[in-house]
Each structure stands twice: as C-alpha cells, then as structure tokens.
Amino acid sequence: MTDTSSDSVIAVIVDPTGGPEGRVAAPEKGEKARSLGSDAWEELRSRPMFWISAALILLFVVMAAFPQLFTSTDPYYADLSKAREGYDVYARTIYGARASILVGILATLFTLVFGSVVGIISGYGGGWVDSVSSRIGEIFLGIPLLLGGILFIYTFPPPLDEPLVVSVMKIAFVLGILGWPSIARLMRSSVLQVKPNDYVQAARALGATPSRIIRSHILPNSLASVIVVSTINLGAYISVEATLSFLGIGLQPPAISWGIQISEASSIGLIRAAPYMLLFPSAFLSATVLAFIMLGDCVRDALDPKLR
Q1: pLDDT (tens digit, 9 = 90+) per residue, 127-171?
Q2: Is 78 helix (H, G, I), strand (E, B) or coil?
Q3: What is the chain's percent helix, strand, coil content, to nearest 5?
Q4: Which H or E element spans position 79?
Q5: How far apart, in whole angstroms, are the C-alpha atoms of residue 118 and residue 112?
Q6: Contact call for residues 195 and 208 (beta carbons, < 8 A)
Q7: Model pTM?
Q8: What angle do CA 208, 124, 301 make, to 5 degrees?
C-alpha cells in the first residue's frame, strides 16, 4: 500500500501530463542539456530581422575590407570636365566604408574591453575600489559623447599630413575614452547580480582564486548584456564619426569617409541639381547604423527570456 501511494506521488510530480505509464521516459543517451547560448541561437535563427541585419553588416564589412570587389574606379581620380560630379561618387562611397566602420569597430572594442575590466574590478572588489572607479566613471559619463569629441579634436587638431590609420585610431580612442563608463556601469551591475549566487559562493568555499572565479563564473554570466549594448553602440560611434567629419573636425581629406562626403556634398550647394552626391553616402551610413541597431535588438531579445 505504501509503495502504491509513493508511486502515485511520483507520477504526479514527474509526469504532470498524466501519461499512461505515470512516468517520464529517461533521457536518451548522448542528449545534452541546452545552454543559454544554444537557446539564444535557436531564437535568433527564427528571426528574419536577424538575418537581414547580419547580411547587411557582412556586406558592409566586406565592402570596407575589399572595396576593389565593388568598383574598379580610383576614388581619388577627379574628372574636371564633369563639374557637378568631380570624383566618382559611387567609388568614394564604397571606399568611405573603410574609415567609418573601422572607427566604429575600434571604439567599440576599446569600450568593451576597458569598460568590462573596470566594471568587473569595481563590482567584484567593492569597497573603496568601487567608490573610486564609480566616481571617475561619473565624471566621463557627464560629458556628452559628441560634445566631448568636438572639444577634444578641436583642441588637438590632426595635422594635414597625418596617415589615415593614425587619424582613425585617434578618433576611436577619443570615442572610447568618452564611452567606456556606460559599459563599466552595466558590467558592474551584472557582476553584483551574479556575485551572490550559490555557484560563486561554492567556488569560493572550495578555495578557487578570485581570478578563476571571475574567469569561470562571473564573466560568462555577465557578458551577455554588455555585448548587446556594445553592438548597438557600434552604430552610434559610426554616426558620431560621420558627424565629426561633417563638421570638419574629424577625418580630413584626402581621407575618404561617409561624413566627409556628406560635408562635401552639402558645402558645394548642388543638392538640388545633383542629389545623388548626398544620397549615396547618407543611404550607406543610415543602412549601416540601422543594421547594427537591429542586430543588437535581436541579440537582446534572444538573450533575455522575458522578452521572448
């Protein structure tokens, strides 16, 4: 009698669907538990917006790395007989992707690495380390990104003969210095949520070093939200670089970027007569920024179960 009642209780708990056997079949051999990454990938695969944004980003990255695949025209060749065109607009738009996307990628990598390190140290260390790093971050956080970039580059203008790589790295460094506090604060809050969990406390009780705990437990469970925000910020950094170049204080000719092209098209006063000079770089810039923002939204929805 006791065994029967025990089996009945087990049947209710294990097989709430009321199957004929009263029990759930044992897992098949070789079946692995699903992780957060696999669940997120399954969610992303089912979203058309993810594939659209990923295809656009891949297209623009290939365009920036191998512009010769898209045009054979020299972007620096000017045909003076075509007063309303001058340079080949399409070729300069293709080659302009390199500087604009490179600035966004480098600035995003800087903020992701530096901000994550500061956030982990602040959240895991606590105490005076947390207070000092938080106050320093608040100082930089109070400076608007675009205004800070304008002030810094206007104060330290690049020389006319500066190589393109140096100019790109300088602008990316400025944007990274001004943008890391938001990533640091996000990482700090994620670390504070993960730190009290049982598996972290168990690892500490078993004698794991702080570096091992951070590497094996804290970082993998805190990085998702930071990656999402960094993906969205990448599009913002590209638009900020275009704005700085449009104002004439970012990248300087003979460098080619979408911001420089928009500035040149606006300054010659032929927008109505030759609108394609403005529309081509503007359309490529808008599509790139939109693609990164859409990708960030898709990744955020996939990693957050509450948004599914």
Answers
A1: 899 999 999 999 998 888 888 888 888 888 877 778 888 889 999
A2: strand
A3: 75, 0, 25
A4: strand 78-79
A5: 10
A6: no
A7: 0.81
A8: 105
